[in-house]
Amino acid sequence: MNFDIAIRSTEILLALAFIQQSAEHLTGPRDEKIIFIQRLVLSVLLLFGIQTQWVCLALVILGLFILKRFQGPYNGGSDRMGLLILCCLSAVYFIPSFQWQEIVFAYLALQLVLSYFISGWVKIINPDWRSGRALQDVFQFSAYPVSENLRAFAKRPHLLWGMSWAVILFELLFPLSVLSKDTLICGLVIAALFHLANACLFGLNRFLWIWIAAFPSILWLQHRIFSLG
Amino acid sequence: MLNTLKLLLPALIPSWRFFEVIAASPRIEIAMLQTAQTKPRNWKAVRPKPEQVTFYTMLKRLFWNPYQNESLFLVSCAERIIKNPTDHSQQEILKRVVADLERDPETVPLPPYLQFRLVFVSRGKAKLERRVRYTSPVYQISDSAQT
User: Fold this and answer.
1) C-beta atoms of A68 and B20 within 8 A
2) In angstroms, what is the C-alpha Rg of chain A?
3) What confidence tens digit (pLDDT) does each residue in A17-65 have?
């Protein structure tokens, strides 16, 4: 994937993710609606590639207002990833040097890889995760399961032990997937399925769309590094 | 402005330590009161989870999930109150709880006063433990102003 296609793909996927998020806020209080109608309009402009440079800048400024409005992210990690992608895109548009544009976009790709690797690392060093106990806790009493009957998974320790190790190994091994295009595509498919499962079981739908929006950056970086030889 | 930039920093240099520790999880409970002096007795869970969610609903929520995302924001507000209580977090909870009550025909007309508390659920030795870690002041519902 070349640089221009990766940037345009990121814009489209980010715009779609922002449209989805913004639409959800239109059911909220009046002050939220006012902010998110603006983000919805800007995201549609981003989707169609209209005045992209200025639209990205306006979205960053609006992002700061949203951070102030909620005194932090509204939905934790998904909001942070959205802002990171947006800031990287904006930087790409405002930095004149192509080399620095590539460095900024590579930083996004690096953060995508780290988002899996660090999550895996903090789990593998935690005995509760290694024993499956932590995932049992997630199902048993955390605020995440979307229904009460999903809490019954907490009574299946062997299954949860297997699921814990599957998650840990996937997250830790994800960086190795960049070694070839095929393994990376395979890794990204698994990643998307992982986010899909989190969305279905824990209602974390925003993570699915926003993480997918960062995928073009790693596809580009993989091509950029391994096509040099 | 500086404070907003401080909020932006974790997005630019994220920590990505998802689910590092499964800490005690907050539940918001409310008591509807007739007077500001009434002692709360019947605490009611805010936004209890449905017993079951169909696979179709799960798929639909991939695209449209405002209620669950708002519920997760309320969880964040509850956690923020414990770490660093601010009027913002309290008002966010109050505003959304009142909106829920206004939408529910069983709670209309609304009582004049409301109080909420945060119950943290965690793993105990034999069973789950519930601990009340915060009880809000009594709020007047009509203007959501603290009394």
Assistant:
1) no
2) 19
3) 999 999 999 988 899 999 999 999 999 999 999 999 999 999 999 999 9
| Number of independent structural domains in chain B | 1
Q: Which of residues 90-109 of B touch A (CB under 8 A)?
A: 92, 95-96, 99
Domain ranges of chain A: 3-226
Q: Do A74 and B15 touch (CB under 8 A)?
A: no
Q: Provide the H-helix boundaries in B49-115.
A: 55-60, 66-83, 87-103
Contact list, B69 vs chain A (CB under 8 Å): 24, 74-75, 203, 205-206
Burial status of residue B40 (CB atoms within 10 A of its CB: 0-12, 13-18, 19 or more): middle
Distance CA(A165)–CA(B133), nearest Å, equals 33
Residue B4 maps to a domain: no
* CA nearest neighbour of A141 among B27, B93, B51: B27
Helix (H, G, I), strand (E, B) or coil at B28: strand
From residue A142, give the alpha-carbon distance in Å to each of A145, A170, A182, B75. Answer: 7, 23, 37, 10
CA dist A40 and A59 (Å) reads 10
Interface pTM, i.e. ipTM: 0.91
- Please check whether residue B65 lies inside any domain of the structure: yes
Q: For the residues B104-108, what does the mean pLDDT come to?
A: 79
At B19, the pLDDT band (50, 70, 90 cuts) reads confident
Residue ranges making up the domain that contains B68: 23-146
CB contact under 8 Å between B51 and A147, yes or no, is yes
pLDDT in tens, A152-201: 999 999 999 999 999 999 999 999 999 999 999 999 999 999 999 999 99
Q: How much is the average pLDDT of B18-40?
A: 91
